[in-house]
Amino acid sequence: AANGTGMGLPAAVRDRVAAVHRGSTLPERLRLYDSWAARYEQDVAALEYRAPHLAAASLAFAFPAPRAGARLLDVACGTGLVAWELHRRGFRCLHGVDGSAGMLEKARSTGLYQELRLCVLGREPLPAPAEHYDALTVVGALGEGQVPSTVLPELLRVTKPGGFLCLTTRSNPSNLRYKAELEAALGQLERSGAWQKLLAQEVEYWERATSEEESTQGTGYISGVVYIYQKCPVPHLEEG
């Protein structure tokens, strides 16, 4: 296949990625993820999906050593791509949650997680007590038709004061409305004193585009962004 633009992607890969992003209802999307689990890692390799690497590198950069004992929650962990990257950088105490049982099964087979739980974000609370984690990642799940930006307070709830949150989203055309909503919510929490922004890095070659209209200026790739926030050590008073 011609490899110039993302259009050189195998049609089947393009269709599977598009289907998940298009999935109209939550149960339908989770079913798609379940059935995608077996081929997921091959597909994202074809996409040259760099988010797990970029997110883990950013978090490791911000995170004060030592990392081995730090408790980290990988939200929407999928098959464990982020865990591999975190593990390589010295994080050893990894917990994961995902809405897809099929994805969790693959994550379990990596042997990288101490704990894995089924949890549909935005529908139910995270299965963790308050202020439990030193760090938390949400890589690739904050997007149109996926995890709503209303989950941010729940992510903050389970993070220790002074803990770090690493979030990513895409900057391709069909996700721009969601991205604007997300950034408004991120900013609102910062103004309320809940957390502090340490990094917001736009990355040009995030992954290959699945269609010409999603591609950035005809590169065949879409761009994305990595955010790092630190939860403020002083609890802010709830209003009302």
Molecular structure report:
- This protein is of the alpha/beta class.
- It has a single domain (11-231), classed as Rossmann fold, CATH 3.40.50.150.
- It is 35% helix and 24% strand.
- The protein has 7 helices and 7 strands.
- The chain has helices at residues 11-22, 26-46, 51-62, 81-88, 101-110, 152-157, 176-191, and strands at 71-75, 93-98, 115-118, 133-138, 159-170, 195-208, 221-231.
- Strands 3-2-1-4-5-7-6 form a 7-stranded mixed β-sheet, with helices on both faces.
- β4, α6 and β5 (159-170) form a beta-alpha-beta unit.
- α1 (11-22) runs antiparallel to α2 (26-46) and α2 (26-46) packs across α5 (101-110).
Give me some keywords for this one.
35% helix, alpha/beta, disordered N terminus, 7 strands, 240 residues, Rossmann fold
CATH topological fold name:
Rossmann fold
- The backbone outline, from C-alpha atoms, is globular
CATH secondary-structure class: Alpha Beta
Helix content: 25-40%
Amino-to-carboxy terminus distance: 60 Å
Structural class computed from helices and strand pairing: alpha/beta
**What share of the residues does DSSP label as strand, in percent?**
15-25%
Q: How many distinct helices? A: 7
Order of helices and strands: HHHEHEHEEHEHEE
**Could you give the count of β-strands?**
7
Question: Describe the biggest sheet?
Answer: 7 strands, mixed
Kindly state the mean pLDDT as a whole number? 92
| CATH architecture identity | 3-Layer(aba) Sandwich
Radius of gyration: 17 Å
Q: CATH homologous superfamily name?
A: Vaccinia Virus protein VP39
How are the strands ordered across the major sheet? 3-2-1-4-5-7-6
How many individual domains?
Answer: 1
Low-pLDDT stretches are: 1-6
Organism: Donacobius atricapilla
Domain Methyltransferase: 73-163
Protein name: MET27 protein
